[in-house]
Structure formats: structure tokens, C-alpha cells
């Protein structure tokens, strides 16, 4: 082990400890697997935590049906290779034509992500949902606990959280209530990429730059995976670009980049002056919108 | 080498803490431009003047609306040398709970002082809480230097004043730096406006200060999280090395079973490995692998400092869940000894325990836990209390040490308090019986309890068998005839012998007037130290705390030792204490010396 990475090993140990605590203290935990880089790191940590056994929980993917094709392929291959049960849950409204163009991004997300997640938690009796959210990502996440208590409606109350000291997490819940556990709480985006490089963790190829056909709308680069209703001034071009974060196709903008290897991505990241969620349309609709979504049960 | 430093921040309202953190993040590029843009936008919305760095850190809507910080928030930034995690806690009246939370995982505290106001009562409390939570390094940023014209005098006056506060706490010499968080002087870079200041900037200090990696020192403690059994040929125990080292080939002691075995392999992560052992021992979650030569205390009773964190006060009759390492047990808060007065920072008598109170309490768990004093080991010395009905975390605790106070809250307690044998006694020292004999009121119980307290502070496994208490349980119904007295002594001797055999130091205090039965007990136990607590009869009769001599003289207590029944002094006691001529301290020293000699034999 290189001594340059001692901060990564410290974070790794903390995350492994949390994953085992969740496995030991809950009857039916599940790992919220969203296919992105954070989920990839989370899965690797879970494999390390229980090695040589398999992680004692299934993967749960809330599929909005607006994910990239590469993501779905990657998801299925990853679950197969890890030998883990994969639960895919989609909100019935998706089949009835719910989409961000019709509903707006806020309502679409509320229905297809938050709503679907709460359905899955109830349907599968999940008492602890392990997620890859990081406190550094967004202001309201900075106050999130490692064990985040959610009431029977999946709601988060930021003003009435359980005090969390040392590494003594309080996982006591009543029936119907649940815990969201966040083993990557103390990781930053740069930590995640450095760890992916250190551990050679496979990630979805969309993170690496290559020439892609994109819809250009103002500054935004919108993927063409699904039909996007046209707006004045739209153009379609082949652009050398990559995804910095992965969500639904429409709501995840690409960034212009030539970073096609891990060292280049890390180098690019060190020079970045803008946050990774900037290209996420959903966080910007309203000041404090992430906090509002989290209160309703979003991750 | 790039490592990780966790620190917490504390400051009174308006000391500029959020601005300082905003400045650190801004100057280390820990905040992105789009986030800054939203800060600029919010600055206009909230009518703040110009560009308000504090809005980088005040995240939640309610905070921005009320312009306060309501809870603990975590911030991240890094430099080429270090990654930093800031636990940012607010300075308003809820600070005890929040600051304790932030400090629990930090190894350093940055304390903000306003150059115009100097050391406020709140600043002293912040330093106290940081020290209480085990933080030994304080960095004191004297902020708003721009508002005192960067006056060297102002800085040095505050430095001396706070230095005097810190000198009374268990912290190292603090680091002091004059800053202007608003303008950036001496925060990330040294400023030109303090030419008289030769030290590093706050960031330079944070980058270079030496901090011990968590869990490096002390003997091995490995709380087991779960057993890993993928197939019949593999059985491992997953956990975290919270202190000491664990290597293949090392001998380890498993608690609570008390069996010693050897590490045959270590899988996976260095700090969070999966351990395989040479012997098939029944080990599960909540058990602990420890250094056999320096095991933790094993027991159900201990004293602790408790920080009450819930709106509803402590209910003395309620049982709480106590979570300690990976173990969760039921526990009673048996008594509240004293509560900290946060105005004076002195302990005072306890009425009740309410939100943000800090108190010393006695706790009894329903199953033993394996603990060290918090000062020695943060991981095995800390716990939380959970309300069983509301499921809320109601308190955080730091163990002081085994409970040394006897008798208990209820003197006619059930027999288990008479001989509270821990389920397992780790053999860090041999067993021994220390027998205190002497006239009534000669000082046996006083000396015996004092010795008990000293040994408890060393972490010894102890039990105290007091003659008066024993007669209420073990020897209930026995009288004061020679036969009954001998029977009483044999019973105490029998229990002391069992304890001795199991590695406990049994301290027995009884008049035990007859030489023959004392010698009989000595012979049957073997490891035996006799302490003759000697004071002349007239001295004892003069003391007469329970009025027994007076009753005996009046003929109401027949066969009272020294009056109308003989006391046969030991012929060759290991120790003789003349409690009428020697101080208690001298007596304690003599007894401890004899115990040490006996344990070395």
C-alpha cells in the first residue's frame, strides 16, 4: 500500500465498518445501487467488508426507465459477476408515460425516484437502505447522519435528527420505519475517483470522454438516448465529451472533456472549478430543492 | 504522505465561525464556482452586505432564513498535504450537545475568539467540552483583527487570557493565530497586516500539526462486528482494530469467554480485517479480542461522565439501552453524583439531568461490558444511551473507570451486589485475599474502601466483602456466639477463596476476633495478606460512630469484642496499621506495598 493513500485507507476502513454494522443490526438491508461511480465504490467496499463471503444483502435499483443503455448493461453484468441478487423496481406511472418533459423535472423525480424508492422499501420490507450519497455533494447533505432515520412515510426531518457520536450508530426503529445508511458520507468526488484508480474498479464507460452525438441547448449537452421535445435554437453535434455524474439521460448533462483515462479524469477534477451536480438539472429548479426532496424521502 | 485530519470548530455567535470556514474552503478551492454563484444570489436575497462567505456553510433553508446554524454539518477540503474533515458546530445555546457530537470524532479543535471581546464565558465552555471529549490540540484563531487595527497588544492579551484557561484543562499548549476571516489574513496565507506575527497561518498549522492516527496507541482492542462463514471450511471474525496491533501469530484473549488463542490469518482491510483463530471458540457480535497481557476492565458497574442530549430529562427508574463498541445491553443510571454548572465550570450537587447537562453518574449494565477509561481509549471508553420507547439517542457517555463506591444506592440490595462476580475475570493479575482485621471502629472499612478505590483506578478486578454487609445476606441469621462468629468468618473466607482462585483481589473487612479461624482461612486460600488495623480500645471507644460501645457498656450488646469478648491480635500480620498514629494515606501506602509484594511472589 502506498503511503500517499493513507487518507483513502482511513475512509475505506470507516466505510467497511459502517457496512458491517448495517448487515449485523438490520433484518433486511439492501444496497441502493444506482450504477454510478459512487455505487461502484460502495459495491467494492461491501465485497471487501464481508470477504471471503458475499455481501449479505441484495442490490436494489430504482429504474426510472430513463437511464442510459450502457448503464443498464453495466448493472446487469456487475450483479451477475458479484453473484448478488438484483432487485429492479420501476414505478407503475413510468409505463403510463410519466416523463420529465410532461411533468417537469421536480415532479418526475418525486414520482419515479422518490415514490418508487418508497414503494420498493415497503414492498420488500427493507429496514435499512444503504446509499452512496456523500455529504460533500450538496449543502443539505452536509448535515446528514451516517444512519439517517426515516419515519414510516420515508420522511427526513433535518431539525430532529438523532445525535451521532463516535462510531456508535443508533439503528433502533419501529415497524415501518427505516434507516438510510451512508457509508460514503465522508468521501469527496476526488476521493471516489482516486479510489477507483487505486482499486481498478470498473465504471460505466460514459464517464470516459469520446466523441458522442449530443443535443446542444445553450450551454447544456443533452444525450440523445430518448426523444427530447425540441426547443428553439437546438442543434445536434458530435462533441468530445463525458458524463461527470450519471442520472437520467435528460437530467444529466455531459461536459466537454478529453479525459478518456482515470489519470486524466483525476487531473481534470483537480482543476475543476464547478461542482459535479451543476449539470444536474434537478438540483437547480429551486433554491434549497435538494433539501425539499430529501424531506420527502429522496436519497 | 497524504493523511486525514478531522477537526471541529467552536465559536460564540457572531465570532465569525461560518465566515472562517467559508474562507478556508474558498481559499483552498474547496468550494466550486457554481456554489459561490448561488451564495452570491442568496446574499442578495437575504439582504446581507456584499458577499457573505458564511452562506457557503449555512446549508439548510431554516438556517438561512434565521441566519443561524442549527446542527452539526461536515465540510471537506484538501491540500496537497492533507485531506480535512471539518465538523462545524453552532455556537448558540444548544452548543453542548452539538459541539460534543462534532468533537467526538475530531482530533483537534479550532476555537474562535472575537478580537474585540476576548475570552467569553462561552469560549471557556468550548475549550472545556473539547477537552472533555478527549481533544488534546487546540488552535485558537483570534478573529476580526481588522476591527482592532491588527493590534499586537489586543492579540497578546487574549492569548495570555486563553492560555490561562487552557492550562487548567487536559490539553496541550494551544496554537494562537491572529486572523481576519472576512479578508483572509493568516487564514490560508500569511497576511501583510500583522508584521509582528511570525508564526504560520491557520492552514499551514493545520497542514503540519502532528496528530496521532486514531487507534494507534495502547493495547489491542478488537470489537467483533460479525462472524463470517461463507462455507464450512472458513470461520472468521470481522471487526475493527480500535487500538493496538493485530498480527498473524499473535496471542489474543477472547472476551467474555476468557479463552486464549492465536491469530492464524488476517483477511482483507488492514484496520478492518477478518480474523481467523487457531481454536474453535464460540465468538459472536459484541465479543472482543484483546491483548492477553493488558485486558480491559470487565464488569457491569462503572462511573461515567454523561452528556444529556434529549429534551426529556433522565428518568431514574427507566432502563436504557447502552451501546458500547459493538455491544448493546440494558443499563440503569443508578445515581447522578454531581452536575456541571456551565457558568462556573464546577461540579455541583445533582437535582436532575436535563438537555445539555454534563454530569458524573454511576451506571449498572445488565450484562458485563469490556471497557477502558475514555482517557485511555476513546473507542472502548465511549457509549451512547438509547431510550427504549422513543428509540432516540438520549445521552453520550465517557467512562471514568470501574465504580468504586460501596455500599450501593440501596444498602439492603439483592445478593448479587454482595458478591458481584463478573462473568469472566481476565487474569492480568493473580487473585489475592486481603484481610482487614481489628476492633470495631478501628478503621477497617475506611481503609479497605480507600484501598479498593486505589486498586480500581489501576484497573484491577476487585470485590469488597464488608463484615457489616455480609451479615445482612451471606451470614444472615448468625449471631455473635463464638461458633456463629467462626461460621461467619469461614463463609467470608470461602467466598474470598473462590474470588482469589478466579483472579480477583478480594478485600475482606471483618472484626474476625479469633486467631484460629483467621489462620484456618489463610491456610485454605494461600494467597493471603493479613492487615491488622490496630487502634487502642479507648480510641475505638472514643470514636464509636455507631454507638455500639455505648450499648455494650450499657449491657445491651452481650459478647461485644473488646468489652466482654476477647480480640486476639495477629501474631505475624503482613501489615500493621496504627490508625491512631498514622494518617490514612500512610496506611494505604503500606497496604498497597504489601499487595504489590504478594502479587509479585
Structural features, described:
The complex is a heterodimer of chains A (299) and B (601). In chain A, the strands form 2 sheets. Chain A has a 6-stranded mixed β-sheet with strand order 3-2-1-4-6-5, sandwiched between helices. A 4-stranded antiparallel β-sheet of chain A has the order 8-7-9-10, with no helix packed on it. Helices cover 35% and strands 16% of the residues of chain A. Chain A is globular. In chain A, a hairpin with a 2-residue loop joins strand 7 and strand 8. Mean pLDDT of chain A is 87; it is low at 282-287. Chain A is α/β, with parallel strands linked by helices. Chain B is α/β, with parallel strands linked by helices and 601 residues long. Chain B folds into 4 domains: 3-208, P-loop containing nucleotide triphosphate hydrolases (Rossmann fold); 221-290, Beta Barrel (Elongation Factor Tu (Ef-tu), domain 3); 297-402, Beta Barrel (Elongation Factor Tu (Ef-tu), domain 3), CATH 2.40.30.10; 429-600, P-loop containing nucleotide triphosphate hydrolases (Rossmann fold, 3-Layer(aba) Sandwich), CATH 3.40.50.300. Chain B has a 6-stranded mixed β-sheet with strand order 2-3-1-4-5-6, sandwiched between helices. A 6-stranded antiparallel barrel of chain B has the order 7-8-11-10-9-12. In chain B, helix 4 (95-104) packs parallel to helix 5 (121-132), helix 9 packs across helix 15 and helix 11 (482-501) runs parallel beside helix 12 (515-525). Classes of the chains: A alpha/beta (299), B alpha/beta (601). At the A-B interface, helix 1 and helix 2 of A face helix 2, helix 3, strand 2, strand 3 and helix 4 of B.
Amino acid at each position: 500500500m502506498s503511503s500517499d493513500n493513507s487518507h483513502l485507507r482511513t475512509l475505506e476502513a470507516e466505510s467497511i465498518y459502517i457496512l458491517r454494522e448495517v448487515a449485523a443490526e438490520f433484518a433486511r438491508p439492501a444496497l441502493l445501487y444506482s450504477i454510478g461511480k459512487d455505487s461502484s465504490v460502495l459495491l467494492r467496499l461491501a465485497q471487501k467488508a464481508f470477504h471471503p463471503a458475499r455481501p449479505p444483502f441484495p442490490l436494489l435499483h430504482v429504474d426510472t426507465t430513463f437511464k442510459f443503455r450502457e448503464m443498464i448493461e453495466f448493472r446487469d453484468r456487475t450483479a451477475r459477476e458479484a453473484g448478488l441478487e438484483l432487485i429492479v423496481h420501476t414505478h407503475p406511472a413510468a409505463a403510463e408515460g410519466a416523463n420529465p418533459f410532461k411533468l417537469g423535472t421536480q415532479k418526475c423525480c418525486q414520482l419515479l425516484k422518490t415514490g418508487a424508492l418508497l414503494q420498493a422499501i415497503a414492498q420488500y420490507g427493507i429496514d435499512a437502505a444503504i446509499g452512496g450519497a456523500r455529504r460533500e455533494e450538496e449543502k443539505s447533505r452536509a448535515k446528514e447522519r451516517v444512519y439517517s432515520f426515516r419515519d414510516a412515510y420515508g420522511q427526513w426531518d433535518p431539525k430532529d435528527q438523532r445525535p451521532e457520536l463516535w462510531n456508535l450508530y443508533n439503528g433502533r426503529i419501529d415497524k415501518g420505519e427505516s434507516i438510510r445508511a451512508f457509508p460514503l458520507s465522508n468521501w469527496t468526488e476526488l476521493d471516489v475517483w482516486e479510489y477507483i484508480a487505486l482499486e481498478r474498479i470498473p465504471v460505466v464507460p460514459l464517464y470516459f470522454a469520446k466523441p458522442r452525438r449530443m443535443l446542444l441547448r445553450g450551454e447544456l449537452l443533452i444525450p440523445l438516448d430518448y426523444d427530447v421535445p425540441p426547443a428553439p435554437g437546438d442543434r445536434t453535434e458530435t462533441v468530445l465529451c463525458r458524463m461527470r455524474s450519471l442520472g437520467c439521460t435528460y437530467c444529466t448533462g455531459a461536459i466537454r472533456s478529453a479525459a478518456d483515462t482515470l489519470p486524466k479524469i483525476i487531473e481534470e477534477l483537480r482543476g475543476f472549478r464547478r461542482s459535479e451536480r451543476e449539470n444536474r438539472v434537478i438540483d437547480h429548479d429551486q433554491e434549497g430543492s435538494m433539501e425539499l426532496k430529501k424531506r420527502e424521502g429522496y436519497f | 504522505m497524504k493523511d486525514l485530519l478531522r477537526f471541529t470548530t467552536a465559536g460564540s455567535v457572531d465570532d465569525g465561525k461560518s465566515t472562517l470556514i467559508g474562507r478556508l474552503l474558498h481559499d483552498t478551492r474547496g468550494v466550486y464556482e457554481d456554489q459561490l454563484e448561488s451564495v452570491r444570489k442568496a446574499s442578495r436575497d437575504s439582504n446581507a452586505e456584499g458577499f457573505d462567505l458564511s452562506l457557503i456553510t449555512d446549508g439548510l433553508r431554516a438556517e438561512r432564513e434565521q441566519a443561524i446554524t442549527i446542527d452539526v454539518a461536515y465540510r471537506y477540503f484538501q491540500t496537497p498535504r492533507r485531506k480535512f474533515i471539518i465538523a462545524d458546530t453552532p455556537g448558540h445555546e444548544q452548543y453542548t450537545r452539538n459541539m460534543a457530537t462534532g468533537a467526538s470524532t475530531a482530533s483537534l479543535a479550532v476555537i474562535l475568539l472575537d478580537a474585540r471581546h476576548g475570552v467569553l464565558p462561552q469560549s471557556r465552555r468550548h475549550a472545556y467540552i473539547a477537552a472533555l471529549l478527549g481533544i488534546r490540540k487546540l488552535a485558537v484563531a483570534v478573529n476580526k483583527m481588522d476591527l482592532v487595527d491588527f493590534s499586537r497588544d489586543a492579540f497578546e492579551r487574549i492569548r495570555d487570557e486563553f492560555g490561562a484557561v487552557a492550562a487548567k484543562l487536559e490539553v496541550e499548549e494551544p496554537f494562537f493565530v491572529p486572523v481576519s476571516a472576512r479578508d483572509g489574513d493568516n487564514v490560508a496565507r500569511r497576511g501583510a497586516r500583522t508584521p509582528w506575527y511570525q508564526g504560520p497561518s491557520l492552514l499551514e498549522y493545520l497542514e503540519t500539526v502532528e496528530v496521532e492516527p486514531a487507534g494507534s496507541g495502547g493495547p489491542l482492542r478488537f470489537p467483533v462486528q460479525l462472524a463470517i462463514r461463507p462455507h464450512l471450511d472458513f470461520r472468521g471474525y470481522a471487526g475493527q482494530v480500535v487500538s493496538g496491533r493485530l498480527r498473524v501469530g499473535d496471542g489474543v484473549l477472547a472476551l467474555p469467554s476468557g479463552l486464549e488463542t492465536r491469530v492464524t490469518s488476517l483477511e482483507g482491510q488492514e484496520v478492518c480485517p477478518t480474523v481467523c483463530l487457531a481454536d474453535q471458540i464460540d465468538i459472536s457480535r459484541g465479543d472482543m479480542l484483546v491483548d492477553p497481557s493488558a485486558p480491559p476492565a470487565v464488569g457491569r458497574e462503572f462511573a461515567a461522565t454523561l452528556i444529556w442530549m434529549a429534551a426529556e430529562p433522565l428518568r431514574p427508574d427507566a432502563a436504557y439501552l447502552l451501546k458500547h463498541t459493538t455491544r448493546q445491553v440494558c443499563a440503569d443510571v443508578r445515581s447522578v453524583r454531581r452536575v456541571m454548572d456551565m457558568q462556573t465550570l464546577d461540579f455541583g450537587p445533582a437535582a436532575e439531568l436535563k438537555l445539555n447537562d454534563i454530569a458524573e453518574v454511576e451506571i449498572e449494565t445488565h450484562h458485563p461490558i469490556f471497557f477502558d477509561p475514555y482517557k485511555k481509549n476513546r473507542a472502548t471508553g465511549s457509549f451512547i444511551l438509547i431510550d427504549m420507547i422513543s428509540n432516540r439517542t438520549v445521552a453520550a457517555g465517557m467512562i471514568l473507570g470501574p465504580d468504586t463506591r460501596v455500599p450501593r444506592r440501596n444498602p439492603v440490595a439483592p445478593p448479587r451486589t454482595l458478591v458481584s462476580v463478573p462473568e469472566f475475570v481476565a487474569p492480568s493479575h493473580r487473585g489475592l485475599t486481603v484481610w482487614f482485621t481489628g476492633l470495631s471502629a478501628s478503621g477497617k472499612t475506611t481503609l479497605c474502601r480507600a484501598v479498593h478505590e486505589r486498586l480500581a483506578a489501576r484497573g484491577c478486578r476487585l470485590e469488597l466483602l464488608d463484615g457489616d454487609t455480609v451479615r445482612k445476606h451471606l451470614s444472615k441469621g448468625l449471631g455473635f456466639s463464638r461458633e456463629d462468629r467462626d461460621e461467619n468468618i469461614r463463609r467470608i473466607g470461602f467466598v474470598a477463596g473462590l474470588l482469589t482462585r478466579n483472579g480477583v483481589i478480594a478485600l475482606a473487612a471483618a472484626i474476625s476476633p479469633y486467631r484460629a479461624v483467621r489462620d484456618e482461612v489463610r491456610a485454605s486460600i494461600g494467597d493471603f495478606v493479613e492487615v491488622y488495623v490496630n487502634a487502642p480500645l479507648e480510641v475505638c471507644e472514643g470514636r464509636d460512630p455507631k454507638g455500639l460501645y455505648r450499648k455494650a457498656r450499657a449491657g445491651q450488646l452481650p459478647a461485644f469484642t473488646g468489652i466482654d469478648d476477647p480480640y486476639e491480635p495477629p501474631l505475624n500480620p503482613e501489615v500493621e496499621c496504627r490508625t491512631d498514629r498514622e494518617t490514612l494515606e500512610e496506611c494505604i501506602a503500606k497496604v498497597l506495598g504489601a499487595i504489590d509484594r504478594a502479587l509479585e511472589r
